[in-house]
Amino acid sequence: MASSASASAAAAAAAAAATGNCLKPKFPISTSSSSLDLGSISSSKPFKRPNRKPNISCSLQTPSILHLPKQSPAYPPSATRTTKHPKNTSTTEKTQSQQWNPFQRAAAMAFDVVENALVSNERQYPLPKTADPRVQISGNFAPVSEQPVKHRLPVTGTIPECIQGVYIRNGANPLHEPVAGHHFFDGDGMVHAVKFKNGSASYACRFTETNRLVQELALGRPVFPKAIGELHGHSGIARLLLFYARGLFGLVDPSHGTGVANAGLVYFNGHLLAMSEDDLPYHVRITQSGDLKTVGRYDFDGQLKSTMIAHPKVDPETGEFFALSYDVIQKPYLKYFHFSPDGKKSPDVEIPVDGPTMMHDFAITEKFVVIPDQQVVFKLPEMIHGGSPVVYDKNKMSRFGILDKNATDASGIRWIEVPDCFCFHLWNAWEEPETDEVVVIGSCMTPPDSIFNECDESLKSVLSEIILNIKTGKSTRRPIISESEQVNLEAGMVNRNLLGRKTRFAYLALAEPWPKVSGFAKVDLSTGEVKKYIYGDQKYGGEPLFFPRNPNSEKEDDGYILAFVHNEKTWNSELQIVNAMNLQPEATVKLPSRVPYGFHGTFISSKDLEKQA
C-alpha cells in the first residue's frame, strides 16, 4: 500500500494561486483528551512505551484504542533538523502574533469557529472504519516519536559480511492527533533506517520535513486536508473551502506542496527520495553516523514541474529513471517522463486517458513502459452527493498501455484490454519476443476500492500473470498460485538487478490476517510453488526487501531478505535477516524502539552512500 492524496494536492494547488508568503498564526489547540499515541519530534529522548503492554487489537478492520502517554502539542526540534522550529509554545505564539495583522487575526478566529462547528457536526455521525482513527492507527499502526541514532545494537546470529550500507523504509506516522477522519495512508512520512558496517548495526527514525509537516508543527495542530480520511461528502467540500480560505488570507501556504512523502523510497543519482504521489519527492540524506536529515523538496534542479507517483523505476542495466505523474483536476490527466542516469529529464509525454485515474504503480521492460488504466478513478463531483471522490467505476474497462521507453509522444501507445483487473502494485514485467507478448506480474485486488471505501466483501489480493499480446491486442490473466494454496500477497519485490527482465522468483508479504503481515512468501513464478517464512508467534511485519549477495551471481535468489518485524506479545521490534535461498534465519537486530507497520523500502550500499549529493 501507499499514500494517495492527490485530491488534496489538487485542491491545495488551486488555493496556492491566491496565496502569498506563509504567515503562520497560532490557532487555538484542542485540549480534548487523546486516546492515541501520536508521533513527536525529539532531539534527545526516545519514545518511551508504558511498562505494561497496552491491551490492543492490531487491525485496520477491528476497532481498538491505544492508550499511551499524552504528547505536548508543541514539540522541540531535532538536533539535526534543517528547519528552525520554535523551542517552546509561548515563544511560538508570541512570534506568530507579531506576524499577524488584525485582519488576519479576525479571519483566523472566524475560520476556527467554522472548523469547530464542522468537527462538532461530524462527531454526531459514526465514521466508517476506513476513516476512523481508532481503527486506522491502532496497535502497531500507531505512530511513534523520532529516534536519534543508536549504535551497536544487540544482534542474534551473524549479519552477512556482504550487507554494508543502510536499509531504509518509509511509512505513515501522523504528527498530530486527528481531529476528524483519518486513513492510515494520510499520516506524515517517517523514514526508519538501519545502517550496517562490519557486522554492527545502528538505527534511527525521522520525520521527512515536508512543507505540510513544518507548517503544522509550527501551528501545533493539523490544518491540511487529509485526502482519504476527511475528503468525503459535504464535510469534505467544507474542509477544502476552509483550507482554501486560510490560504487566501496567508494563514497557510500550500504553494510549496501539500504532500506527506510517506510511501516510496528510491535512490537515484546520489539522491535518496521520499515520495507520495500528491507532491514532488523530498530529498533525504543519510549522515555518516546513520541519522537522517531532510534536505528539502526536490524538483530535479528545476526540471520537474508536477507531482510524481511513489513507484518510479530505475532500469538496472541503463541506470535510467522512469516515472508517471497524474492530475485529478485538469488535463493532461496523465504524463510519462524519464531521466538519464545523470539526471537530465525528457520532455513530458501526455498519455490519453478519459478521466482522472488512480495510477499508483506501473512497470518497465527492456524496451517498454507498461501503464495500467484501471477501474479506480477520481470523481470529485461524488463529494457533492455525499460520497468519496475515490470511486470504483464498474462500467470502465481496465486496460494496459504499452509504450516505447524513449517515445516522444503517445501516438505509438498500444492499449490492450484486461477485463475486471485492478493491480495496486506491479512486481515486474518482461518481453517474450518470440510470441510478441509482454508478461506482467502483479497482485490483483478485489474489491478494487476496498482500501479506501468501507465494504462488506473481504479483500483478496491474488498474485497474477497478465499476458499482453502486442500483435493481436488480446490479453489473458491467470492466478500464479493454485486455488488450494491461495493467500493474500501484497508489498514486495523481485531481484531488482533483474527489473524489467524475466524473473523466476518474487518475494511478497503474506498479508494475513489482513491487514497484518505474518511473514513472506517466496513464489516461483513459473511453477506457482510457494515457500513461506513465518516471522513467529504474534510477530508481524511488512514489505520484504531482497538484498542480492552478489550482483553478478548466476543464481537469481542468491541473497537475503530484510524485514522489520514487531512482536505484539512483548511490544518490541526487530529487523530479521533471512537467507533467500533456503529461508533460514541469518541474524536478528534488536531495535531500541517500536517500528510501526509501514510501506516501502530500499537499500543503499556503502559505496553509494559515499556518493550522496
Brief overview:
With 613 residues, the chain is α+β, with helices and mostly antiparallel strands. It has helices at residues 6-16, 89-99, 102-122, 133-136, 211-219, 233-248, 606-609; strands spanning 147-150, 155-157, 165-172, 189-197, 200-207, 264-268, 271-275, 282-286, 292-297, 313-314, 321-326, 334-339, 349-350, 363-364, 368-373, 376-378, 390-392, 399-404, 414-417, 423-432, 437-446, 460-469, 475-479, 489-493, 505-510, 519-524, 530-534, 539-541, 545-548, 559-567, 572-579, 585-590, 601-605. The model is unreliable at 1-37 and 43-95 (pLDDT under 50).
Structural class: alpha+beta
The CA-CA distance between the termini, in Å, is 29 Å
Total DSSP helices:
7
* Helix share, percent: 10-25%
The major pleated sheet works out as: 6 strands, antiparallel
Quick one: overall form? globular
Mind telling me the C-alpha Rg? 23 Å
Residue windows where pLDDT falls under 50 for at least 5 positions? 1-37, 43-95
Average pLDDT, all residues:
81
| Share of β-strand residues | 25-35%
Please report the total strand number as a whole number: 33
